[in-house]
Design brief:
By secondary structure, this protein is an alpha/beta fold. It has 20 helices and 22 strands. It has a 5-stranded parallel beta sheet, sandwiched between helices. Strand 21, helix 19 and strand 22 form a beta-alpha-beta unit. Helix 12 (about 365-380) packs parallel to helix 13 and helix 17 (about 565-575) packs parallel to helix 18 (about 590-600). The longest helix is centred in the first third of the chain and has 46 residues, at about 115-160. It holds the Pfam family Response_reg. It catalyses: ATP + protein L-histidine = ADP + protein N-phospho-L-histidine. Its EC number is 2.7.13.3.
């Protein structure tokens, strides 16, 4: 604002209107607003209403003279420093002048007044007033600009922080208890962290009815004590967890609380998942350790009787009864080891999704009979009584008979292991709709409620002091569940508690009537007793020699090689019908040997059989690519070997 445009006011106080008119005429050219007052009280009212650049005050006035008016003006804060010029027409101006200056007057003018002098003096005070007003206005503008800049910085910071921020005003009841709070301010992140929109001006009770009372207690304590606090709390109504920092705004008695907070719900959920995964990993590691210890124990157990059996056979060579008894014992132990290895291979195949089902039309009753026969020795060794209930009608099913028999046998073995001696085991099969329902119930140690949900987990074994498990790796029930699922069925476990026995129930889909009866495929008849030329290639001398002895007993010509070079030499000297070839040879891999054998004209039609400890689908694919016809996992079972020999004999005879 230009200097000369700043408004200035001059107060003229005189009880004579003519004198007031004369003063106005003298000061008219100064460009000021002149205010008249004809008495002391009227002058004081004008001073209370507004500020003046100067006051021209007559000394002699009726009722309240100029000195009394000046004294009141100086007593008021607003007008304490307003310039006062006394005007008098008295006979003793010196005494009046002293009194005027004693009251803080800036000048004393005696009548008659000289217009130029009066105008010049008033102009000085007007100019001084305008300068002060200009400076005050400039300072105010600077202050407002600084305040506006600070406000902009505060607002930018307020809106830029990722955390939610709000200012709450606590709402108290008549007793002073906090019953609600209203949002005075909230940044943009507030909505992101709370899910609440347009919160400013509204209370939490309006926005989230049912908000928990402990939030009010916390903010009340912050407002009363002035102590800032940080806490983590759940807002159940919002279904969120918050990390909150709250502090009071203002001094004692203020009900304003500033709150900085973050929604940590996802973080807490992630931490819970991490803890759960850590617990699961720890449990899996513990089970792995227990499994390895159990596996070492189970594989070691047959070694002692096998070693003892060999010693007995050497000592009792002349005692046929001893040799037969020892042989039977050794066969049992070897079958036990084979069963353990088969279970491990099944676990690997199922875990990688590479198990192959050989489905055919079967009668479930026949498969159950086979499984009962398989488990009979274990049941009898525990002196248990087995009761079997089967329906009279056939139970047709499209399934892998070996795998279904494995399911039933595993359930029977599990019942026998976990049932104290002389217990009772019941196997029932019934038909419900299009399903066959097979249940195995025992009077064994039972399963408590906590362990019941874990019995089908890998390597899980039911802990109990009532009966000691008779070996096993804790994978039988897991295999049952997986094999049943592969057949489109389900398995479940139930128990009334510890020492109250348990029941395992399997549900399997039956085949439709339109699918036909039993499998039309007949077993391949045994080949006529024609001699085959067979080569066994294995760097394990015992394995190669034992298979060679078996071939001799079957009436075939057997050739033994322990390296790839030996195998290739024999292949060039003899026309071979079958080659059992180990993959892991000392001088070259079985894959390389197979490829080189296929390059020999005489071995184009020879049956190449891979012998390996690896049995995954990838391993089988690799052997096929190397030129093998069949793939057998070690230890090769005798029925599988005999089947291959029969097939080769038939092919040779047909050729």
């Amino acid at each position: 604002m230009p200097h000369n445009t700043i408004p200035a006011h001059v107060l003229l106080v005189d009880d004579q209107p003519a004198n007031l008119l004369a003063l106005e005429a003298v000061l008219d050219t100064l460009g000021v607003n002149m205010v008249r007052a004809v008495s002391g009280p009227e002058a004081l009212e004008a001073v209370a209403r507004q500020d003046f650049a100067a006051i021209l005050l007559d000394v002699r006035m009726p009722g309240m003279d100029g000195f009394e008016v000046a004294r009141e003006i100086r007593a008021r804060a607003r007008s304490r420093f307003t310039p006062i010029l006394f005007v008098t027409a008295g006979d003793d101006p010196d005494d009046a002048m002293l009194s005027a200056y004693a009251l803080g007057a800036v000048d004393f003018l005696a009548k008659p007044l000289r217009a130029e002098i009066l105008k010049a003096k008033v102009a000085v005070f007007v100019e001084l007033y305008r300068s002060k007003e200009e400076l005050r206005l400039r300072e105010r503008r600077d202050f407002e600009q600084r305040l506006e800049a600070k406000e902009e910085r505060y607002r930018a910071l307020f809106e830029s922080i990722d955390e939610g921020f709000c200012v709450l005003r606590l709402v108290r009841d008549e007793q002073g208890n906090v019953r609600d709070y209203r949002f005075e301010e909230a940044n943009e992140a507030f909505t992101m962290h709370t899910g609440i929109k347009d919160a400013v001006g509204k209370s939490i009770r309006e926005l989230a009815p049912g908000h928990e009372g402990h939030w009010f207690q916390i903010y009340d304590r912050v407002a009363r004590t002035g102590e800032a606090t940080r806490f983590v709390e759940e807002a159940k109504v919002m279904k969120r967890w918050f990390d909150v920092y709250a502090s009071r705004l203002g001094g004692a008695g203020s009900d304003l609380v500033a709150v900085l907070f973050s929604d940590i719900t996802q973080r807490l959920l992630a931490e819970q998942d991490l803890r759960r995964l850590n617990d699961e990993l720890a449990q899996a590691n513990r089970r792995k350790t227990e499994f390895l210890a159990t596996l070492a124990h189970e594989l070691r157990n047959p070694l002692a009787p096998l070693s003892n059996g060999l010693h007995l056979m050497r000592m009792g060579a002349s005692k046929p009864e001893l040799l037969e008894k020892t042989r039977q014992m050794m066969e049992r132990q070897i079958q036990h080891m084979v069963h353990l290895v088969d279970d491990l291979l099944d676990v690997a195949r199922i875990s990688t999704g590479k198990v192959e089902l050989r489905r055919q039309r079967i009668d479930l009753k026949e498969v159950v009979a086979t499984a009962v026969e398989t488990s009979a020795s274990l049941i009898e060794s525990g002196h248990h009584k087995l009761h079997v209930e089967l329906p009279s009608q056939p139970l047709p099913m499209d399934a892998d008979p070996t795998r279904i028999a494995q399911v039933v046998s595993n359930l029977l073995n599990n019942a026998a292991k976990y049932t104290p001696e002389a217990g009772r085991i019941t196997l029932k099969v019934r038909v419900e709709g299009n399903e066959a329902v097979l249940s195995v119930t025992d009077t064994g140690v039972g399963i408590d409620a906590e362990a019941l949900s874990k019995v089908f987990e890998m390597f899980a074994q039911v802990p109990s002091s009532a009966a000691k498990p008779q070996g096993g790796l804790g994978i039988g029930l897991s295999l049952v569940q997986s094999l049943v699922a592969l057949h489109g069925g389900t398995v479940s476990a139930s128990s009334e508690g510890v020492s109250k026995g348990s029941t395992f129930t399997v549900r399997l889909p039956l085949a439709g009537a339109e699918a036909g009866g039993a499998d039309d495929r007949s077993a391949t008849p045994a080949a006529s007793s024609g001699q085959l030329q067979v080569m066994v290639v294995d760097d394990n001398a015992d394995a190669a020699e034992s298979l060679g002895v078996l071939l001799d007993i079957e009436g075939h010509a057997a050739y033994i090689a322990h390296t790839g070079a030996e195998a290739l030499q024999i292949a060039q000297e003899h026309a071979l019908d079958v080659v059992f070839l180990d993959i892991g040879l000392p001088d070259m891999s079985g894959y390389d040997v197979a490829r080189r054998l296929r390059m020999l004209p005489a071995l184009q039609q020879t049956l190449l059989v891979a012998l390996t400890g690896w049995g995954t689908q990838d391993d089988r694919q690799r052997t096929r690519e190397a030129g093998f016809d069949r793939h057998l996992t070690k230890p090769a079972e005798l029925p599988a070997v005999e089947e291959l020999l029969r097939a080769a004999a038939l092919a040779k005879r047909a050729g």
